[in-house]
Write a structure and sequence with these properties.
The protein is α+β, with helices and mostly antiparallel strands. The chain contains 6 helices and 10 strands. The protein folds into 3 domains: 7-46, no CATH class; 58-94, no CATH class; 100-188, His-Me finger endonucleases (His-Me finger endonuclease fold, 3-Layer(aba) Sandwich).
Length: 198
Amino acid sequence: MIAVATKKCRKCETEKPLEDFHVQRSCTDGRRTVCKKCSKENQSRWARPKNGYQSCEKKFCGRCKKTKPAAEFYRNARHRDRLSTYCKECTNSLRPNYTKEENRDFQLKSTFGITRDDYNVMLAAQDGKCAICGTTTPGNSRVFNFSVDHNHETDEIRGLLCELCNRGLGHFGDDPERLEAAARYLRKHKAAPPKQSP
């Protein structure tokens, strides 16, 4: 009778044939420490349900240590239950109460090293328009300010642009030659005006 090589599963602690363990070359015997059955159960435990999330009526807040209704938690798509770790009350207590203006000041100062007054001076010098296309609309309904355009190599601020122009420069890698080539291409393929019937 041929002896079958066996191994003890670290999770269920059952002695099983090596064939009941997945191959893993980094292990001494070339097999994982957990059997296939236990491994599958573990995966199904953490797998996301078919509807994309696990719904729950109540949740334990990791900060105030209280179990509260799901409605008292902010949504968070990265979590299995689609709810944040802390309840709304605890989350709000951790957030600084900055106004929109203060948030804007912080963004301008930390990213570009300018103040809101500097920004307003630049905008006034451009007559409140995009430095490229001349529009007075910064972007779509969610964009309220013109983008601060800067040289990505020297960090020198060049001007204020609308969302489309700023993205356009970015997609062209701030390369003037590519932009000029694109302009020539568009002029070459510009639709001819329709011929008028005699």
